[in-house]
Specification:
Order of helices and strands of chain A: EHEHEHEHEHEHEHEHEHEEHEEEEHEE
Number of strands of chain A: 17
CATH class of the largest domain in chain A: Alpha Beta
Number of helices of chain A: 11
Oligomer: homodimer
CATH architecture of the largest domain in chain A: Alpha-Beta Barrel
């Protein structure tokens, strides 16, 4: 109904069923170009992480070539992208031995150079045993932990690094070391972020030198997170960088300082379905199922609730956030203490909501509705989910 | 590999790719029977909410007949279930006028009695106008707010109730009032829950009497939430009850007292992929993408992290929770202050993780892997997501 009025923008959005996921192609392209320029400056390979976008259309824009390189977070992503021509892939989650047959099938079926990562003697033995048994010398990274965030061998644990490296090399192919400075997501000071990037770099080089000192190969030294990729001063000794969420950006990355709010390329299109003037609430059809339950900005200086509300052209309303969310209801309200005026948004009004965490929000959808550089809806790009 | 050992259970789970969603059919059936018995005791119609399960297989077990009645939270659910024979449906999220054509298409195409809800004069006028224009007298509920939780007309606002009712009746069909005591999710004391149920009931009856007193029809008086449905002492004046999450149960419902931990029918099957003995961590491949970002137990007496960890047969390990989660990594650790022993879970071990919130966790998957009453994997039930 709203679309029939002459004074509304000719963006085509009223044809969509809400809630749905909107992708601004111009902002996406700018984010991709910005990261590429930063990585190119360091003279290293760029291996974008496809876990955020999970879309071949986005991947083809982000990768340096149609065959990769690229990083994935699930074997389903590996299958999807390999089937679509991406041949150089790293599955950057520690391998479980019973997943090796699926890895092998992807390598054989698509001729893909799919590498795995691990951080224990047991996994290294299982991988080598699998390679000997199948005749497929699997490329393997040793995961190294730069900051105590999650998995990985400590960079100073030379005995364990050598032990794992030897076991890999005994049957499979030791490709190098891989690190992810996940603690950088908790920072926001540019100096601290540069230090986190340097810590990641130094840990990677230390681990690589340990392996090489033991006569083991370490051709690839791979680091990456969106914040550290953005803030690294130099990457001496590093051969490749990975990053994923930078493609879309989100409110958490804006809070860290890895992007500006205006750079965020994805938003959830929602419809106003009610009002509670007694409480100062505007109700929409985008609840936590549409936004995800991610409250990543709750721990940051500016808490954005479940998302920051913009008009249908993507311009934020001052201090208007998704203050509460039920499964299929979002409650818009002004940030606490705000002196801003609550906008008048009648029932049926379309709004666009910027997400806290692009990876989590995008995973609630099976496609992107793409808005072109002219601000008009131009098509759909499918995406995958699951494992 | 683990499946080849003779001493492992013959449950068939090693054939699955992890993470995946497992549904215990025996527990599901017991949960369904328990709620049915409680609702039957009150002598009212039961209209299960299919927003949690989103599966026709589960719906057919939960509904009193193959044609319904049932409640849905999205029009995609309405389409999916109507196409599979469910004819008596209420779409229990406030209607936006531009969604009416889609509602009408579902009604026509499948011969479905799909009703909508609203809580404003503007929506009522739009619905009546649509009904007059299309010749389809849409059945409409007035949403009433029993507890300030979300949407709805206040039960004592007689003028607004009458105004909305008259506008609906002018073109569409006023079917009754519908309430959801969402604040009950924040309770845990049985007495307080019984009071919340009584508050919901009394508000419903008050609103229905207001409409009837104005000469308006109100054949259906619909209430429901899993906690209030469980704790209602009597339902005088109520004609139907809705509930959804009770089918599976979850840790939040266990914290409220709406189910026991042992009743929880869904779990995420995960594989151990690493260890950090220095930190007391066991790493699995079920991160927040697999569990959802829902941290609903954080506000309860027992914080279950991102989920409570069980062995592959579904028996909880004492105090072992998903203490942290990244996108595809879950960090298992003992609850803070626990004196329990951390179980020895070698790489490749399968565990089952009970979710905080079944609706959010199940939405990360496109199917259920069903375990029969004999504890063995017996098949897959598809489910839908999205809008």
């Amino acid at each position: 109904m709203t679309g029939s009025k002459d004074d509304l923008p000719a963006d085509g959005l009223e044809a969509l069923q809400t809630p749905c996921l909107v992708l601004d192609e111009g902002k996406l392209a700018a984010n991709l170009a910005g990261m590429r320029a930063q990585v190119d400056r360091h003279g290293v390979t760029f291996r974008p992480h496809l876990k955020t976008a999970k879309s071949i259309d986005v991947a083809l824009m982000a990768m340096t070539g149609p065959g990769g390189p690229a990083t994935v977070s699930t074997l389903k992503e590996a299958e999807y992208f390999a089937e679509r021509g991406v041949r150089d892939l790293t599955y950057a989650v520690g391998i479980a031995p019973h997943k090796l047959d699926r890895v092998g099938a992807i390598r054989r079926r698509f001729g893909a150079d799919l590498a795995v990562i691990l951080d224990s003697l047991g996994q290294a033995e299982a991988v080598s045993e699998w390679s000997r048994r199948t005749g497929d010398r699997l490329p393997v990274f040793i995961e190294v932990d730069p900051d105590g965030h999650r998995s990985g061998v400590k960079p100073g644990d030379a005995d364990l690094l050598r032990g794992i490296g030897e076991r890999i090399a005994a049957g499979a192919s030791l490709r190098g070391v891989l690190l992810h400075a996940g603690e950088s997501y908790g920072l926001s000071d540019p100096e601290a972020l540069a230090e986190a990037a340097e810590g990641e770099r130094a840990a990677a080089v230390q681990a690589a030198e340990t392996l090489r000192g033991a006569g083991l190969p370490c051709p690839v030294v791979s680091v990456g997170s969106t914040p550290t990729a953005r803030h690294a001063r130099h990457l001496d000794g590093i051969t490749e960088v990975r990053a994923g969420v930078y493609m879309f950006g989100d409110l958490v990355q804006a809070g860290i300082g890895s992007c500006a709010v205006d750079d965020i390329a994805v938003s959830v299109l929602a419809t106003v379905i009610g009002h509670r003037p007694d409480k100062g609430w505007i109700i929409t059809d985008a609840g936590w199922m549409a936004m995800s339950r991610d409250r990543g900005t709750a721990a940051q200086a500016v808490d954005q609730g479940y998302g920051l509300v913009c008009d249908r052209a993507g311009r934020p309303f001052e201090d208007l956030i998704v203050a509460q969310a039920n499964q299929e209801h979002g409650v818009l309200a002004l940030r606490k203490g705000s002196g801003a005026r609550r906008p008048d948004l009648p029932i049926g009004t379309l709004v666009r909501i910027l997400p806290n965490h692009a990876c989590a929000t995008a995973a609630q959808y099976d496609r992107y509705h793409v808005i072109g550089r002219d601000g008009r809806l131009e098509g759909e790009w499918p995406r995958i989910n699951g494992w």
